[in-house]
Amino acid sequence: MDFIAPEISHFNLAEFMREALREAEQAGQAGELPIGAVVVIDGEIIARGRARHKSLKSQIRHAELNAILDGGERLWSEYKRAILFTTAEPCPLCLGAAVMADIPHIIFALHDKVVYSAQTVETNPYVHRHIKSYQGGVLAEESAAIFARYDPNALEYMQTGVGVPH
After folding, report:
1. Residues 116 and 94: beta-carbon distance below 8 Å
2. Checking DSSP bridges between strand 36-41 and strand 44-50, what pairing results, if any?
3. Tens of pLDDT along the chain (166 residues)?
């Protein structure tokens, strides 16, 4: 269930996903779950985030949440044009954070068979009316390669729904 709104169809999605992948790489190097995210408004990255569960000793310091929290005044005032790029399909926490921040466009690399966020976007009327774009698969192979290097068990779990979650 992927869809993209016309107003962002002209963006080079891979260009911004590469920036999220850089964040994921840095997270993996730091011993964190290798997920990265960036928030873009009008073709400019306004915020970055990476998984920081261990370093901040918090289960909720996900890459997407960290990027959204870093969005500041620009995200507050220009949210209608915001795009969240993330290297993995958002979990329910991060999807909810994007919805509550009124970010209308979510672009991700790896589909996650465990989180059911696409189903939430499709079937929850509150969520669905907030999300104009929900597109996965952008540089998915590159994201999978980063996961394979740093946390192959998490990759297997995301891709198959089988295995031990992190």
Report:
1. no
2. antiparallel
3. 789 999 999 999 999 999 999 999 999 999 999 999 999 999 999 999 999 999 999 999 999 999 999 999 999 999 999 999 999 999 999 999 999 999 999 999 999 999 999 999 999 999 999 999 999 999 999 999 999 999 999 999 999 988 766 5
Q: Which long-range contacts does 17-20 make (Cβ < 8 Å, 24+ apart)?
A: 17/85, 17/87, 17/107, 17/109, 17/138, 17/139, 17/142, 18/139, 18/142, 19/45, 19/48, 19/85, 20/63, 20/85, 20/86, 20/87, 20/109
Tell me the catalytic residues: 64
The answer to pTM > 0.90 is yes
CA 138 from chain center: how many Å? 11
Could you give the angle at the alpha carbon of 52 between the alpha carbons of 25 and 131, nearest 5°?
85
The residue written with tokens 């209308």 in the block is: 104
Nearest to 62 by CA among 10, 120, 108: 108
- Cα 160 to Cα 90: distance, rounded to the nearest angstrom: 16
